[in-house]
Amino acid sequence: MSVSVRMGGGALLAMMLATTAMAQDGPDPTGDIVVSLPQGRAPQPLETRHVLDARDIALVDAVAADEILRRLPSVYVPVNSRGEAIAFVRGAGERQVALFYDGAAINVPWDNRLDLSLFPAALAGRAQVAAAPLAPLYGVSALGAVSFTPPRPAYGHVRGMIGSGGLREVEAVAPFTRGSTDVMIGGSYATRDGDTIADNADLPFSQRGALRTNTDREIASVFGRVGTSIGDHLLSVTAFHVDANKGIAPESDRPDGARFWRYPTLQHSLVSANAGLVLGPTTALDLVGWYQRFRQTIDSYTDDTYAVRNSQEANRDDTVGARLLLTQQLGRTRIIASANVLDSQHDQRDTTFTRGQPPALLPAFLHYRQRNWSFGLDATTALTDAITGEIGVGYDRVYYLETGDKPDTPDAKGWTGRVGLSWAPAEEWRIRAAVGRKIRPATMRELFGQALNRFLLNPDLQPERIVSADLGAEWRSDAAGASVAGFVQDLDGTIDQRNVGRLRQRINLIGSQVIGVEATAYWHPAPEWTLGGNGTFARSRRKGTTGDQTDRLAEKPDVIGRVYGDYDGQSGFGALAEVLYTGRAYSADADGVLVALPRSASVNVRMSQRVRFAGVAADVFARGDNLFDDRIVPQIGLPAPGRTLRIGLTISGG
């Protein structure tokens, strides 16, 4: 059965307000900044934030992080033609969104993004999004931010799950406590044969079999965290290693020019150390340092049989980063001095095959290197008992230290800043406004990468310059809450693409603008029930277009939203029903012409039953996603999965 749901923005807003914001907004999600400071050291933020806690994440039954983030307000997670699941925040593209794990930046600097479909969900105990304007302390290119923290369960658990497309998954997490030291170790393994296909998916080319062509995936991970306290000081070390491989679905709307790629190897490792030091009654120092290792191989094939390789790209990335935040309280004023540094080496070897065979002598690796510096000073002061003001200034600079076989490129640099006010007229209310400026330099890949002869280089790319503003109001009571925020993002020099023959080339547009509103609401009509929803309505347009040019931007839907009902019964029975809605978006066809994508709605249902015995809890669950098999197309020729079913069992202590 295939049902295509068509809901306008007004209908979605009516549904959302009728059910009245995310249950995740019930508790205060703003006790710490996304990137580092421990609870209680940061003032109420001026940016918009939303949180998914451990229970919210568990209800998603996710294999990878992209499935989690689709539940956060204003976060859109399409899958591009490289097979990467990438996060947009309020229309800000993936290279404008900073990703953090326990305070460490995990974007791969070569392209300033990360494939979230290969970041295991088992690593995430909490997920948070922060939307612009962000303070200078977030670092270079951060117009929006997404942060994950490791799981910190009170009891260990083991989960096994099977599902459509040959899905098999198992994960385990075990916590230990010894005095003031907490230890957590875990691991996960997941594999699938491929994605399901909606009955009405339009795939005229390169589609083979009942599952989506070339969408098998395998992910394994191990991870751990050790945290302790020495007096008032907090110390922790976090580490993970991910080993994965997967196929990339071809663009099946075109008879030629599609990518026929596989990732036969991908390894992603991180080691980070955090120190929260109390230097005095009014002074604190927070330090984060990390090393990230990323290895990836891309095999390109001649056709959709994936039998004959014609080229290979091997990538090696090593990144060292550090962040320092010095917090000083001076009466009613709090000052945070920040410094961020990131040094990344990217080595790449492109190999051309002849009749499927590599050359006798492999070419040498080309070496690229980049260093980011960011400095900031943020001051927050209580102007009255109800009004708080903030001003922040910073400076970002990116050095392109090695450029492979390409000409040297000038450094990118620019100032950043934010100013805002927050007013709390009553305990339940808060109203805030902020305006800020950032730059977003071109990444090394945008400047030097040719993607196996798919891109024509443009050495004249300039940094994007971004001014953003946010006006929001929040209300909360014991049983309900709501928030609304209007936002504007004005970009000069937007980096986009154009077609040059059969190649693509990155260019600077005159600019672009995003204007929108985000609303959330939640309501607890009874202790066992939560009703809620969120919606983001955004108008994304190019600036400076003429009458014969479109002013649309690719893959920027005008509406995204979620409505849900969650029942958690005392008997152990649980049920969740939700609708994820995506409005009108546009995508470039084989000729580079933007065409409209279908609106879509995914109806998802979950049921579970918990049984306790001998100090152990067993949860049996069943989940169905996209139950009506709607055609969901985040990018032309690359539809999302059709109807999928999952069943599983979680056994935990406590």
Automatic annotation (TrEMBL):
SUPFAM superfamilies: Porins. InterPro entries: Beta-barrel_TonB, Beta-barrel_TonB_sf, Plug_dom, Plug_dom_sf, TonB-dep_rcpt-like. Residues 1-23 form the signal peptide. It is a multi-pass membrane protein. It holds the Pfam family Plug. It is found in: Cell outer membrane. Keywords: Cell outer membrane, Ion transport, Membrane, Receptor, Signal, TonB box, Transmembrane, Transmembrane beta strand, Transport. Its main location: membrane. Residues 49-146 form the TonB-dependent receptor plug domain. Residues 242-627 form the TonB-dependent receptor-like beta-barrel domain. Belongs to the TonB-dependent receptor family. This is TonB-dependent receptor. The lineage of its organism: Bacteria, Pseudomonadati, Pseudomonadota, Alphaproteobacteria, Sphingomonadales.
